[in-house]
Amino acid sequence: MKSLIKILVVVFAIGGSLTSLAQSDFGVKGGLNKTFFKTDTGGFGNFSSAETGYYGGVFLDFEVDETFNLQIELLYIGLNDFKFINAPIYLKYRAAKDFHILVGPSLNYFFDFFNAKLKVRADLGLSYNIFSDLDIHMKYVIGFQEISPNGVFLGIGLKL
């Protein structure tokens, strides 16, 4: 639980300090995710499985210049018995008028996920603004550690 509190403090400290420096937007997002687990089953080799879940949370988007933003998110993710908090920090590049590429690390706090609580993963995402306040997004999450899962997220975001 102490790790979760540290993650929340770091994410909101970064967000709070950047709010005064740049144009910022706040919003909510949510959608579905497909997570791929690969575990070593001892002498029986590797076992792969996939689970479908949901996610929802909030984001802060800070304008750095005309083509780059910094986007910080705090998401709750549910996958059957697995529940965790995901806190990605994205460098968001505007590739075209309403199309963005997002890349960055994500900190993940798993609630009792084989007793390994904190995981770091890498995210690569795309977003498209349907309207100025509504976007659709997709991201791929890469787990670095053996038991840390990879996943695909598809959802919508709404600026408030």
Protein model, in words:
With 160 residues, this protein is mostly beta strands. It has one domain: Beta Barrel (Porin). It is built from one helix and eight strands. It has one helix spanning 2-19, and strands at 24-40, 46-63, 68-79, 82-94, 99-110, 118-131, 134-143, 150-159. The chain has an eight-stranded antiparallel barrel with strand order 1-2-3-4-5-6-7-8. The longest helix is centred in the N-terminal third of the chain and has 18 residues, at 2-19. It is globular. The two termini are 30 Å apart. The mean pLDDT is 82.
Please, how many helices? Answer: 1
- The CATH class is identified as Mainly Beta
Number of domains: 1
- Poorly predicted runs: none
H/E element sequence = HEEEEEEEE
The share of residues in extended strands comes to over 45%
- What class, by secondary structure content? mainly beta
For the largest beta sheet, what order do the strands appear in spatially? 1-2-3-4-5-6-7-8
How far is the first residue's CA from the last residue's CA?
Answer: 30 Å
How many strand units?
Answer: 8
Cα gyration radius (Å): 16 Å
- Tell me the major beta sheet: 8 strands, antiparallel, barrel
The CATH architecture classification is Beta Barrel
**Helix percentage:** 10-25%
What is the molecular shape?
globular
